[in-house]
Amino acid sequence: MDAIDVFRVRPDGSFVWIGSADSLPTALKVIKTLKVEPSDAFLIHDSQRNNTLTVRADELAAFLTH
Question: Which residues, at least 6 apart from 41, have a Cβ–Cβ distance to it below 8 Å?
């Protein structure tokens, strides 16, 4: 069951649901496959743990290498 939701953060601060994933690395890979600008922001929410992470597209490389 996918427990992690991925949202794009719009410039006005609202969110658009992009999809879901079964893990944080998969969620980050989903974002990486999108056509994004370096300053685009994404919100990743883990509903099972009730944790939320906000990441900019230009920060993805650092997350994917850890």
Answer: 8, 9, 54, 55, 56, 57
